[in-house]
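Practice problem: predict the structure.
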Amino acid sequence: MTSIGIVGRGRAGASLALAIARAGGQVESVSGREVDPDITGRFDLVVLAVPDAAVAEVAARLTPRRGCAVAHCSGSLGLDVLVPHQRVASIHPLASLPDPELGADRLRGAWFAVSGDPVVGEIVELLGGRPFVVDDRHRAAYHAAAVVASNHLVALLGQVERLAAAAGVPVEALGPLIEGSLANAEQLGAAAALTGPVARGDWDTVRRHLGAIDRSERATYLALAVEAARLAGTTVPPDLGPPAVVPLPPT
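Answer:
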């Protein structure tokens, strides 16, 4: 069985270590600030679960050993930050890890972006996950997609909460609508799943919305209405946005 050392005890590192331990893996976690340079002599695989800005620095502090692979958990970084190690890899879970307990649960069966040394595939297999390979030249674009799918979606849900509260509507009532919309997009694709005033060209309703909501919410609402029009292939009226919608690239 591959022995694994997790460097970093933040949410990602703690979640990964707990998930591996629960699955019966041989794992130990250590602090990123206090990591022993010779940790590479104790494990078959050392995973750096530290902030992106610290990955190269921590990797450079570790003693290179041919028998130990060094990997990072960054979504946006390539493998070049892991020099001078010979066996290098990356493993980025497509899962939201708010705390170690919930994070460990969500890592079971999760999708993982991997590259480099195939040893990281053993972690994915141990957790019952699903791997896919992302080449270094696409890492930043891949991570941008993940950020929009997770962080930006949560930011949007923050606006949903505020608008619902302003209208005296329980936000829980919107939960099934949110879940249904996500399910439709997953099953049909985003363009086919789009409904609502923009999809049917009802710009008078959009204007009423803008007049009813707080001024601080209008820029976000309008920006997303423009994006909805882009998705629908329709034109935004001149008083609301650009005279023509920038077309989406062909699929």
